[in-house]
Amino acid sequence: MDSDQPAGEVPYGTLDLMVLKTLQVMGALHGYAIARRIEQVARGSLALNQGTIYPALLRLEQKGWIASKWGVSETKRRVRFFTITRAGLRQLAAEQRAWARTVATLNRLLEES
Amino acid sequence: MTVLRVLLARLRGLVSRGRADAALDDDIQVHLELLTRDYIHRGLSSRDAQAAARRAFGGVDQVKEAYRDQRSLPAIETFLQDLRYAARMLRRDPAFATVAIISLATGIGASTAAFSVFNAVMLRPLPITDPDRLVLLQPQRRGEEFILVNPIYEELRGRQTTLSGMFAANDTPYLKITFEDEPAPAYVHASLVSGSYFAVLDLTPHMGRLLTEQDDQLPATASDDRCAAVISYRLWVRRFGQDRAAIGRTLRVGDSRCAIVGIGPATFESHQTGFTPDVWLPLRPLTDRKLLASRGMAFFSGVMGRLAPGVEIAQAEEELTTLYQQAQAAQPQPPAAARQPQTTPADFTIRLASGAQGFDKIRRPFSTPLVMILAVVGVVLLVASVNVANLLLARGAARLPELATRAALGAGRWRLVRQLATEGLMLAALGGLLGVGLAWMTIPVLTSQISLGYVTLTDARPDARVLGLALALTVTAAVVAGVLPALRLSRTTLQSGLASGSRTTIASGHRLQRLLVTAQLAMSLLLVSAAGLLLRTIVHLAGVDPGFTPAHVVMLNVRDEAPQPSFGDVDDAIRKARRAERYRVLDERLNSVPGVQAASVSWLGLFSMQDLWLPLIDPDRADDRPNARVDYVSARYFETMGMQILRGRGFRDTDREGMPRVAVINQTLARVRFGAGDPLGRRVALDYRGEQQRPFTIVGVVRDSKYNDVRDSRPNPMMWMPIAQAPFPISSISLRTLPGAEASVARRAEEVLRATDPDIMVRSTTTLSAQIAGKTSRERLLLGLSSGFAALAILLAAVGLYGTLAYMVNRRTREIGVRLAFGARGDTILRMVVGDALRLAAVALVVGVPLSLAVGYSLRAFLFGVTPTDPVAMAGACLVLTIATLLAAYLPARRAAAVDPIVALRYE
Question: CA–CA separation, B890 vs B800, rounded Å?
């Protein structure tokens, strides 16, 4: 563990944002790679049940923000690779702005008191 | 947009279930492999690595579950699961499913068909803008329907301010018109309407223009024979093949030549349901001037207006009544008849009824029968739904162990209710579908029964309202049949758990079932007793002695198209002589048609639906002018009708113009006029222009007979004169035939007419019996429907009873076994079961008999010769119910009696 803090739960609704950001930065990835990447970036500050990524991926695909196609894994198995779509990029930008605003507001609030 | 996309994606997910699951399996497989590989790299053993991978991934099943919920619509998925399960359950018990579905289909089908006709007659508004603002003018005298004559109509129309417009219409089912360039005349349905007709209805032409006030002016000179006509869209299609050149063509109507100025709108058929005019003509130019001016003779089929903006119906009613009373005050009142008090203007009122559905020619006479039919089919539907509920209950009870097991395995109560309700819903949906199909087939049959005079309902196609009702009925049936038993069963299930033999729960389900069966029996009793009353009515009507012999008489309703005297006038001698000669020739030829025993022509004839009274003048008592029904007939009339001559003689061929004028009267007229004195040789004249001074000498008295309705309780005073001595235009030809020769005689008679006198047009051919039966068509319609539905209801109730008893015997096998083991005999058991059924029937009778009496009272207007409390009909209904009960109880009772005690005791 790289942090002294205990690993926290994934805040509700942020998993989608993390997946989108990961796909924007990394391009096409399969589910395992996405989960790994998020864990690496979090450096142990998140306790992610990796399986929960799949309902999230389905949710994003239904919304049209990501797309999937079949590919082959490092173990030579058939697996789905996900990429972010145009609509996904727009959504990511919007959510990033919203997130920044929320964080800024919270920070100001916490500093003042 | 995103929401929609997600919904679509989920719906796709519903369909592509298998494929998506496989993809997820692949993904998870790869994910776990890669995780395991990582852990091995970190130095874990292969087995530890696999375990660690699973931990890091989280529960595979939970992920799959969450994924599945996300993928499609879980509620629908459960529903589909329930549906598949329900379908499986129904397939497993096809007899049950068939009975249930047919029950519901009959109930829903009958209700839909009946409502469809009700809708077409009573509810469907005219397809025009703001039909709700239309009002029907109903003139009344002392609260009873009265006539509206043209001069008063014109006065109302000119003075009123509360209507934005009003019109009168005279519907003519057979108008003879001749199209330009066509040699033969055609008979069409025509409406003679005021110039304001199309403006009040707010219609726009399909092409050309519609009639206006200018078209409805009397021509300035008598020689001006021009007029305008609007033909219907249908006629335009049928006769002109949608040729635009139809406009501008002329058609001859009587002495007038009308130019077609426009084609009516395609969407609007008529102001009267069941009567579709082919042509609209202006009323005034085409109506006899004397008739227009008459203050005693009305000829309108109806008068309608449109309320002016902001005017309430009561306001218009008040104004029109005031104007109507003023008009009546200005008009000379006819001398009062002997027994009636003098009327005053205050006796006259105008009632306004809603005109949204147009004229009420069939709406009024059929509203009560239609409401009754609706009530009948409603009861049938109720019985059917209760039946299905009952069957589901009985079957559900048999499934208690299965339900209990599922409850024990964790199925929630709500899940079980939903499961059982889905079965009910599925049955109802299938029943509803089949029912709408049945309705589709029944509607035309029912439609043709709604007929009176020239108005016959032709179109009762179900519209959105009808289909909405069918759907609502289906849902209601589903609730009654599915949800109620489901709630009931699920409660008992959860209470009893796996203890399938628990006596208390069985008993409580059983009580509900018995209650339902009793209700079914009671409702069936209502229908059976109503059918009994109507059957007795029809039997009584058939048994009435009409005073003539209706069997084997062919009737031709005809119209003499040769020139006629105009209204209120009499013919000159030459015309009279010519007509008398035509009729003599015709009469002679008709009497020589093979198969004819006697034939005659007459001015009105019997049961012609004409209701004509004329005042008579007795030269000895000139001040008193009694009314009598009169007719002009040819020589063999009494023989043709089978009327019995009691005194004197009938007519002879020698009773001709130039010979002494003679008349035959009936018993009632003889009694009323001449009391105990001898009527033969007395003289009577008609109070009619040109007739007052030419009395007829009475030469015969015939037995009293019915005139227009076999229900007439008091015989009417009647008088007949030879048509040879008073040649009025004939409208009826009767031929008494040898038995079985009716059809051939009818055919031959029409041929004779065509060959002898082409001016005589046959409007319809029928038999005297059919014409009499036509007078009781509503009673027959009600009888047919109520007996059919009563049979159905009692069949359903019997099935329900059978099911309940069979189930009960099944549950009590052990008890029966014990009884038998202790020495009870088979027939004791048989009596026990049958007695049980009879107790249910007895309760049903106690409840049903008072209700049936109430139903009888509501049928009162249709009854003849029976009282609503008729003991024969009631006893008969009770007997039918008891017999049905015994039949339904017999099989289960036999099975109970045949129980083998050894087997039964080993049973649990």
Answer: 14
